[in-house]
Queue: 3 jobs
Job 1
Amino acid sequence: MRDELIVSGLTVRFAGLTALDDVGFTVAPGSVHAVIGPNGAGKSTCFNVLSGVYRATEGSVTFGGTELTTLAPHRIAALGIARTFQNIALSRHLSVEDNLMLGRHRLTKAGFLSAGLRLPRARREDARHRARVRDIAEFVGVGDHLAAPVGMLPYGVQKRIELARGLAMEPRLLLLDEPVAGMNGTERQRMADVIVRARADLGISILLVEHDMGMVMRLADEVTVLDFGKRIAGGPPADVQRDPAVLRAYLGAAHEPTAGTATATEEEERERA
């Protein structure tokens, strides 16, 4: 299927430590699919493989039939896969509008010379992209901040701007890495509403990593649960939240990582490196 994401047998090892071990799941076109699990479960590693930051040791990831594991990040983005980050990755000194324009880069056809010389074709294209950026800003609820430097805005607004930049890429699949982390209740609800509308109005697929289980259970069509790099459960949210293996993982029942499996601390150290 054209926009189906299929993860199969995905394994990632770092110096003998296994961060992901034979993980598999499918994101259906137009669906919201959540990847959840305790800290150190392998969620960020999974996202880093899907976006081309990490290389898989074994396994396959295909999107619309194209194998992603051999592609560089910019090639994956060119296929229509956009990503937000757990830690805000915006240019703090640029305006909101210019940050969103960075998301239009893969869609820009005018060459560097034409843009630099401000030739008529480049000016017309720039105007079209800026008009689209303004529409997206309004859609996400940050239209009043277009001229403001990002670094001057509240944290919750910055998180929505990062989502807007992802949408500015006109993605077919949007990867959201903890989109409501650090937000208060009102901000979380606003972000959830935008995600629901993005899926419904734009018809995109969404894969999200999130610790807010209330949000996951409300938004997700399917949930994949990781623990110590392994897939321990998957299915509709109502089934997953009753799964005994999931309850053990989240309630802290005594279970130790198998030999050679990355612990939470080890994976977090790699993420900071």
Note: The chain has a mean pLDDT of 86.
Job 2
Amino acid sequence: MEQHNTYENIHFSNMINVIEAESFPRTFPLHWHKYVEIAALAEDAAVNTPPSIRIGHALYQLDPGDILLIWPGEVHETVENRDGRLTGIQFPATMLSELPDFAPFFNIFRTFHHIRQAQTPGLAQQMLSHIRQMLSVQDGHGTFAGVETVICLYEMFMDFGLYIKNSLLSGKELHPPGSSSTIEKISAACSYIVDHCDQEITLESVAGLAGFSEWYFSRIFKQITNYNFVEYVTLQRIKRAQLMLSDSDTPITEISYQAGFKSISTFNRVFRQYRGCSPSEYRKYYLK
């Protein structure tokens, strides 16, 4: 139980919880929480058995140089960390979602999980360098260690945001002119969906708000978020239900309607499809 107390039951007195290799658990059961968690495996990590973490239905195996992003509300477990080489950080999502420069990217950030050294070496190396710096700062216990750690975190997500922006701008669908504004409009559409997902919401209405035709909006929305419109709306309804499952004793049937689902049977089926467990199981897995 000592690992449980030091690893997951955190209160963010320093805003960011930095997890060194000796503190990262070898295994940890299914759970979820409201903060962002990042697991990393250094490029030079010598492992006999690659570490693996399950998020929902997906099992992610990390190779040296890889990073795994676990977002608030995602049911996950550390399946394998036998060699004890994983490191990590945990921090409140509001550090990104409530900062004006990051807010437009936050819903796009959340569509990423596995940053692979083999696929995007530049991005992986940049992000790992910031994680190494955070570990070093925390080890040093300097006067402004907390501030330095926050700066490292923001620099890491600046690199991540620029990578996303530049990779999208290089695609055929988003050539200038208007490329940057297209990303901003899709980000604004994502925010609108998040705020109104409990209501009747249509592709036509959101495309109109973004100033695009339905056909163009559908193509660009999929390219930027990796979800089609219906999938994204459904996911936001699931996320809204997740908050209610953790913050209240509201009956699950009532939660399903408040989250925008028309029937409890649909809610139960879709919730299991997206989160790999029933709503009642999800409530049980919540780690306070």
Note: Residues 2-169 form a domain with the Jelly Rolls fold (CATH 2.60.120.280).
Job 3
Amino acid sequence: MTTLINPVGHPTMVPKDIAPANSAAFSPNLYRWMKARGHAYKDGGVAETVYRVLPNSRLAKEFGAGTLMIGCPYGQYEGDTDFSGSMLMAVLCNGSKATRYCYVGAMHSLEVVDGFWDSYLKVGRCAIDPEHNEHFHGGERYSVTGDVRTCLWCGEQHQKTIMPRTIFDESWSTI
């Protein structure tokens, strides 16, 4: 096993810690990908972490600034800037079928999402979507009581607001 120069990931987590059987908040596809394509350290822990694509970078031109990637630096030699991983959304949609790629020189295009795994272990997919804008497949995310919905994964509550609006449709007809 190759030792990374700058260890990343989570020092004690193993894929079974994020098994969907442990919590409905955990993504079945992320779990499958971590089991099939993830890297682990010999003495425990996972090497994978989540990165955000930096604006005005080479990867921003390819994926868009802010895109989340999962993987790790190659770290094969001093100064190695290659990244091995996948787009996180591809992993969430395709599980172990999401291919892992080598992005040559890509580490300069990425910043670590600090504390991602610790947050994921607490609130599952809400660590990926803290704004609660995404709809995840599999498992109910909310319980609704009156005008309040409560996230079953992280406990955050949202108040429903109804905003009236007027819509005018314009059409043209022959005179």
Note: Helices lie at 28-37, 58-63, 88-94, 116-123.
